[in-house]
Structures are given as structure tokens and as C-alpha cells.
Amino acid sequence: MSTPFLTPLEAEALRLSLWVSTWAVLGSLPLGVLTAWLLARWRFPGKVLVDGVIHLPLVLPPVVTGYLLLVLLGRKGVLGEWLYQTLGITVAFNWKGAAVAAAVMSFPLMVRAVRLSIEGVDQGLESAARTLGAGPVRVFFTITLPLVLPGVFTGVILAFARSLGEFGATITFVSNIPGETQTLPLALYTLTQVPNGEEGAMRLCIVAIVVAMIALVASEVMGKRVERRMKG
Amino acid sequence: MLRISVKRKQGQFTVDASFTVDSTGVTALFGPSGAGKTSIINMVAGLSRPDTGMVMVNGRRVFDSEKGIDIAPEHRGFGYVFQDGRLFPHLSVRSNLTYGMKLVSRNKRTIAFNDVVELLGIAHLLTRRIANLSGGEKQRVAIGRALLTSPSLLLMDEPLASLDEARKSEVLPFVERLPTQLSIPILYVSHSLTEILNLADTLVLLDSGRVQSVGPVEDVINRPELASVRSQNESGAVVPTVVDHHDLSEGLTYLRFGRNLLKVPHFDVSEGAKVRVHINSRDVALALSPPAHTSVQNIFPATVEQVTERDGALVEVRLDVGSPISAKITKKARRDLELKTGQRLFVMVKSVAISRGANGRHEW
Q1: Distance CA B33, CA A34 (A)
Q2: pTM for the model
Q3: Percent composition of chain B: helix, strand, coil (DSSP 3-state, to 5)
Q4: C-alpha R_g of chain A
Q5: How far apart are CA B173 and CA B94, in angstroms?
Q6: Are A124 and B46 an interchain contact pair (Cβ–Cβ within 8 Å)?
Q7: Which residues have CB under 8 Å from B324's CB, separation 6+?
Q8: Is the CB of A228 inside 8 Å of chain B's CB atoms?
Q9: Chain B residue whose CA is closest to A129
Q10: Are B344 and B303 in contact (CB under 8 A)?
Q11: What is the pLDDT of residues B259-314, one digit of tens each?
């Protein structure tokens, strides 16, 4: 991929960023909604602990999260070795690892947004659906989920934006390999470290701003549309 | 047959209620706020779980703590109309109506979509969004949504309580039609005596989570223990009557109770129909001899059964006119008339409210 505006390396970084962020969000969305629902609606032993672990990436230095991922999921990591030997999957030093890092870092933002939204749903509506013959799973997909869609949109946009900006955990976990793990922020950082890189850095900076603006406007438009659908 | 025997502790409050009633017509759970009416109906629906007890509807056990039976609400097959409607805001009126209907297999549907829409007068609302409905329209849609699941029992939790008077009188006629037009038994929660008199056949009187009495409305409603749950302006007696004949030249309808005939302004109901009449005790006056030269049309001989002191200057006199009624008079009037139990006198009924067979109150 190459454009008149960007050099091939910069264009590749943009493409990779969008790709990694999309997968990070799509991959963590089902788990994020499920986690949000569990935290909003259920009481179980160790709930405080689960809540804490999910929120850790928000407060830990990203490098620490990246290092923990490396220890867990690296080729020689506790889980990573097992994954590689039994399923032949590895996320070390490739774009999948970058997506995992972005997903972990943005997960708390997604869970928070969806959870707040689920807590706002009138449980009376769910009871009403039960008396009309719908089982718990059907109630979730036909009543709860449609009613929390605005919250899910917010969560997706927040997580996507957070994924685009992900730097510390990514560079620690999967390093900075052009075309594989060098996302836009990493490429920008690299350009600032080489002579005559300022021009490229500025171009990437502008690209980052444009992408962020598009994401914000898109979320606003979609949010309005959902709201209008709810209110008739 | 509707057999309910449930016990559940909710914080400081304990519901411990048992009753058995015929599962035809309308059974009203009546009592003041906090009597446990909604708790009981929720346990019948399966939305909350009794600590112990059992719920049996037409021989089908939906809950029994001893036998470990607890059927999920979606499998009980009961319709539920909530006080606050609880329509789904993200769906249209039509989709709300068909939400439960679609989950019932075609051969088990006993109530047709078009019939319900016509019965409730909601055909013009089908494409609307829920947010654009008035309170009364919402409740009619909520009733329709529950009916379309072809329920074996319809639970209604104060379906009119959240509506103002105008909206109430808009919805009440539709609710009144349900028992006669669809033969679904209804368990109806209310704290409004007017609604009960309009709708109910059987009354379950509740207070503090316990059943105070159970029986046909006319029997239970006149029992003295009911006085405590009635508000001041609702005190009085309910008299079951039969339409004797109409006198169109005078514009009157004659209602028979015992050997007496009650004259009321003409209203359109067939002869022989049963009509329930509510006589407020403030509208009953007493006289020792048959009064002549009076505008009051309804004068009956009566016997004093009991005189009870009430707050302030009033006493309540329970009388037998072939059916129990009561009068509120001042303490001074009681002294002047020298009222005692067993005394024979005459009652003058200034006004009655007709509760069933016609809409609204008829006063003159």
C-alpha cells in the first residue's frame, strides 16, 4: 500500500494500525459484553478481584502489562508454549500479538461502557419478556442487547481509539517490526529517532488526528441514529 | 381452581398468604399499599420465589417447595399486565404485541391478533413507537401483549393505578369486557374499591401480608373488618341487585333487592341483569316514621344492627334493609333519635353508585 502522501513504510503502519485495532475490538467484544453483563447483573465470590484484574491495564504502566503478556504468551511463556505446541498458534512478535496487547489495554474501557449501559436497563422489561414466554438467552438477545447498543457503540469506539494509540505494551510484548508489529504510534516514534524523520513524523501525526476525528464523528452519528430508533 | 399458599420473607416484611378460589371470572387481591398484593402476584408469575409454599392453577402445579417444583416464568403460560406497562421501547406497537405471541405455537393460540386489536381499540396504533403513546394507550397495548400469549391465567397488577381519572375511564371499559369476551381467569391486584366493584367476582382481602377474608365480593365487602382498609369516602355498603323493570315514561330503572325496589335514573341494561350498587354511608339518612313530603325517592324500612362510634362527631349505624347498609350520622342525631340495637326505623337513600352493568356513577 502506497499513497502519494505517505511513504510505503508510513502507509503500512496506518494499514497495520487499523487492522490490529479492528481485530482487537472485534475479538474482545463478545467477551467484553459477557464480562460487563456478569459484573452488572451477578453477584459471585471473587467479583471484586475479577473487577480489579480487568481494570489493572488502566492503572499499570503499559510496559508492565506488555512484559506480563510476554511472560505469559511469549514463545517460552507459560501459556504461549502450550498454545504453540498443542495448537501451533503463536502471538509472539507478529500482528496477532499486537492485537492481543491492544485488546488487553482497551478491554477495561469497553467493559466499563457496556456495564454502565446494562446497569441502566430496566430489569422490569426483562421480567416482562420472561412472562411473555422468552427464556433468559432470548431475553438477552432481544431485549437487553438492543437496549444497551448505545453503550456497546461507545465501548467499541473507546476501545478502538485506545487500540490505535497503544504503544507501551505493544513494543514490550511484540517489539517494533516494520510490516508486522510496527503500528502507527511505533512508526511515529521510530521516525523521531532517525535523522530527517521529522517530516514523516508530522505526516503520521496528521494521519493520527484525521483517523481519530473520523472515529469520533462516526460514533456521534451512529449514537444519534440508535437514540432516534429508541425514542421513535 | 386457583390454589395459592405462599410464604416469603422480604426484609422486615413477611408474606404468608393462603387462599383457594374458583378460577373463573375475576379474583381481586385487595388491600392497602404494602399489604403484599404485588409480592403474591409476582410469586404466582414466577418472578419471585416463595421460601415455602405452592401455587396451583387448574390442577397444574407451577410451584411446590416440598416437591421441588419451580417452573420458570416463561413456561408457566400466564399473562402479566404490569402497573407501569413495561412495553419494550425499542420495538413498535405491533412488535410489542407479537413478541409473546410468536413464541406460542400456532395450534396453541386461542386468541386471534385481530380480535385483540379490535377488543382493545388499538388498530390505529400498530405502526407507532412506544414513546408516542399516551398512558392509556400504553396500558391497552400491554393488556393486548399479554392476551396474545393465549395465557391460562391473566395477572393484572394495578393496571390502572398509574393513569389519571380520564385515562382510567378510557381503559376500564376494555378491562371490564375481558372476562365476558375471553374466558380467561383473571387475578387482579388493586387498592381501589371502585375498580373492585366494577370488575371482581371474588375478593381476597389482604393486610400486612396475610389473608383477612376470601369470598364473593358482595359478602366480603360488607364485612366490618374491611372498614380499616377502606378510605373515608369509600365507606358504605355494596348491595347486589337485579334489574326489575324500566319505566321509560319517568326515565327510571327499578332495581330489586330483597323485597325492596330501588329507583335509579334509567340506564341501558336488560331486565334480569345483575347490578351491583354502592351506597355510601354519608348518603343514607334515618327517620323514625315514614317521611312524607320529601324529594327522596328511595325510602325503606330497616332495623338497627349496630352503632359504632367513629372519629369526631360521627357515628356509623349498621342497618338491615334486607341487605346490610350503613349510615353515618352525627352523635347529636343519634341522641335525638335515641337509636338502639334492634330498633325499627326508615332509611332514606339519597344517592347510589351503580358499579356493574353500566359505566360510571349515577347520582342524583
Answers
A1: 38
A2: 0.80
A3: 25, 35, 35
A4: 20
A5: 22
A6: no
A7: B222, B237, B305, B318
A8: no
A9: B100
A10: yes
A11: 889 998 888 778 888 888 888 888 899 999 888 888 888 999 999 988 888 777 88
